[in-house]
Amino acid sequence: MSNVAGARPLVWGGDWNHALTGREYAGSQGGRRAVLAALDTLGLEAPTATLPHAIEDLLSIDHVAVPLGIEATASRVSAQCDGKRLSDHDAYVLDVEV
After folding, report:
1. What is the reported pTM?
2. 1 domain-assigned
3. Does the structure show a pLDDT above 80 at 7?
C-alpha cells in the first residue's frame, strides 16, 4: 500500500472477493476488516458497498472506491444477455461529480 498511499486522486476498483457490509459469503470477516482498514488508511470509500450481487440476498464483492467526500452514485449493470450469464460477475460503475 505504501506505493499508492501518496497518489492523488486515487481510485481503486476490482474484484475484492468481500462484501463490505451484510453477510460475508465469498471472503472472510478478517479479510473484510483488512479491506475496510485499507480504505480507511487510503482515505477512500466504496459507493458500491450496498449494491446487490448477482446472487439474490448477497451484496457485491466487486467494488470501486473513490476519495472521501467525492460525490459518486454507484450502479450495477447485469452481466446477462438473452437470459444467459456472460460472467459470474456483474459490472459496477460510478457516476462521479468532479
Report:
1. 0.86
2. no
3. no
How far apart CA 84 and CA 68 sit, in angstroms, is: 37
**Boundaries of domain holding 79:** 12-97
Rounded to whole angstroms, the Cα distance separating 81 from 98 reads: 33
Q: What is the DSSP letter of 34?
A: H
**Cis omega (within 30 of 0) on the bond before 52?**
no
- Asked whether the predicted pLDDT for residue 38 surpasses 90, the reply is yes
Task: Say if 2 falls within a structural domain.
Answer: no
Burial class (CB in 10 A: 0-12, 13-18, 19+), 62: buried
User: Cell digits for 87?
Assistant: 460472467
**For range 37-66, the mean pLDDT:** 95
Strand pairing category for 80-81 and 84-85? antiparallel
Q: Are 64 and 73 in contact (CB under 8 A)?
A: no
Task: Specify the number of domains making up the chain.
Answer: 1
